[in-house]
Amino acid sequence: GGRDFGSPVRVNQLGYAGSGPKQASIVDPSATPVQWQLRNGAGAVVTTGLTRVQGDDAASGDHVHIADFTDFRTEGTGYTVAVGSAVSEPFDVLRNPYDGLRRDALEYFYLQRSGTPIETAYVGDAYARPAGHLGVAPNKGDTSVPCLPGTCDYSLDVSGGWYDAGDQGKYVVNGALAAWQLMDTYERSLYTGGWAGLGDGLLKIPEAGNHVPDVLDESRWEMEFLLKMQVPAGQPLAGMAHHKVHDLAWTALPTRPDADAQPRYLHPPSTAATLNLAAAAAQCARVWQLWDRAFSAKCLAAAKTAWQAALAHPAMYAPREDSVGGGPYDDTNVTDEFSWAGAELYATTGDQGYLKSITARITADGFSWKDTGALTDLTITRLPWRFPLARVLAARQRVLAVADQYVRNVRNQGYPNPFESADGSYPWGSTSATTNNALVIATAYDLTHRRDYRDAVLESMDYLLGRNALNQSFVTGYGERASTNEHSRIWAHQLDQKLPSPPPGSLAGGPNSALQDPVAQQNLPGCEPAKCYIDDIFSYSTNETAINWNSSLAWITAFAAGS
Ligand code: 9MR
Questions:
Q1: b/e for 163-184, b at 16 or more Cβ within 10 A?
Q2: Of all protein residues, whose CA lies closest to atom 15 belonging to ligand 1?
Q3: pLDDT in tens, 390-399
């Protein structure tokens, strides 16, 4: 039987910015334009028009029309778009619809903290919980975690940091990217505009009011953990970073962190983890210079030792098979990681020695925890005065060219997704391809202040918040048809009514055409790529959250709220 996606009229279920583009995507077989109506909260028609026939959308198989009501700017709530008898989900038109989400997307990280109680004062009773993984029974870790048997003979205190996702593993490769994206939110605010990255007291976290920007406080929680993952001086492989720490076996759903009885192990160092740590630590040295010199110096020392260790061990790859009790985060090409880390270290130190490693470039393939080459160009464009002029001009040109491609993706598809894969497939965590590509478009806006770029970022928000093939908001708590059952061992309301649903502002991984879990396989056979998603707590391959996805959501939401 067909799946029910509700109304064929798809909108941003949160709302449209008064000064931004306002479009709906409509599934309609007609080859010629049809009439649309915009109705206000009282149901009165406030404006009408004819659709533009966009045509067949490859990723979804839908035949799509576009209704454009950009010129309508009257603020209000409860608007709908109607086509014939079909009515969209309701939405607002507001000067800034993203004020709440920019906070919630960042507060997700406090809720993911390991090694500290999550306190009622900040999150309310429903989300409060005891500290996890401090060695208090039945926990075994993370204050003295041994290596996997036979791989080293020391133990490390690797307490703290953020839990990765729905699991309670902690991984350096993507943890460093997530911390980097939060720190970049701060650096963007410093140099380019917006204010979200600078606020102290913006978030409900213990550090609010300490006179340090909250995004820095939150990212430091992870940075401190990342530094602990380095192999200590005097040991073999000193300076390398352990790839990850996680349980011996997968725990059941639900399992609160403090109830996890599994033994945890440090998995062997990898070059990729070491270089991503180096990149984030080099950035950490820069951003903390102003706020905490000692911590800045500690980060710089770690970045340099990590870099040297990676040069000495340039091909230690985390095995793909190491996927029991935690994810593999495997990667066998680290030229891109050398390039990104080299760029970050060069930006911070100006030491010419790093320049020759800066070889990767941004391409339309984008970036992810695995492919960090594009971040090289983003670092260069963030800090142009620190790089040789020829490199800056080239990086800037490439960022604009890639952003232009992403804007075309937004325009040419039935739904405004800046991500479009060459072979039509949607990967695990496809919403993070959307957010990361939107981040590149936003960077192009920062470089040029061209309205097209801002519009395309706002339209990317439309895609995430319901203007898509599923009529689905992938952001919890935002939209009538928002995800509610993300894969989590903590927020498991679908399994136990006494437990909360995921907190507002968490991003579901979204459509994944490879159907990599049993629930997806059973429920989504033959799905069109953009429709391979199910809001089920057991669908970890389509409905998990992850720190490196929410960091990207937080970045673009700060942009959308502040630009
Ligand atoms: O985000 C990761 C995705 O790119 C991989 O394809 C997938 C399978 O290896 O793993 C994803 O990361 C998961 C990790 O392995 C374990 N914690 C949850 C992460 C998000 O689903």
A1: bbbbbbbbbbbbbbbbbbbbbb
A2: 327
A3: 999 999 999 9
